[in-house]
Amino acid sequence: MQLSLYDAGRASDRPKLKPFLETSYSYMPLVWGATLAFWLGPALQEGGHILPVSLLLAVSQLFASAVSVAGLSMLLCFAACHSA
User: Fold this and answer.
1) With a threshold of 0.70, does the pTM exceed it?
2) What residues make up the domain containing 12?
3) How many separate domains does the chain show?
4) How far apart are CA 13 and CA 15, in angstroms?
5) How wide is the angle at C-alpha 30 spanned by C-alphas 25 and 31, nearest 5°?
6) Does residue 6 surpass a pLDDT of 60?
7) For 32-70, how does the pLDDT look when each residue is reduced to its tens digit (9 = 90+)?
């Protein structure tokens, strides 16, 4: 069976690509772990600032008639002062 130049080139590329993919996939958990270790601290710190204010705003939207604007602003100031 005679292969054309195009088919011969493709056949020779396949064995070279498989070890590269296996190597890159084997390093993927290491890269994910390093990325998580690098960004976990800043993400938790930022979440500690954002989540209390977001929760407060969500609760105020649920009970909009019961919460006054002055009370909401006092709660936001309290949350901002104590989250720092």
Assistant:
1) no
2) 5-83
3) 1
4) 6
5) 85
6) no
7) 999 999 999 888 888 787 877 787 777 777 776 555 666
Q: Which two tokens stand for residue 13?
A: 């590329």
**Tokens matching residue 44:** 């938790």
Phi first, then psi: give them for residue 66, nearest 5 degrees.
-90, -20
By the 10 Å C-beta count (0-12 exposed, 13-18 middle, 19+ buried), 56 is classed as middle
**Do 53 and 80 form a contact (C-beta atoms < 8 A)?**
yes
What is the Cα Rg of the chain in Å?
28
**In this model, does residue 82 exceed pLDDT 80?**
no
User: Which residues neighbour 79 within 8 Å (Cβ) at sequence distance 6 or greater?
Assistant: 52, 53, 56
Which spans in the chain are helix H? 5-62, 69-83
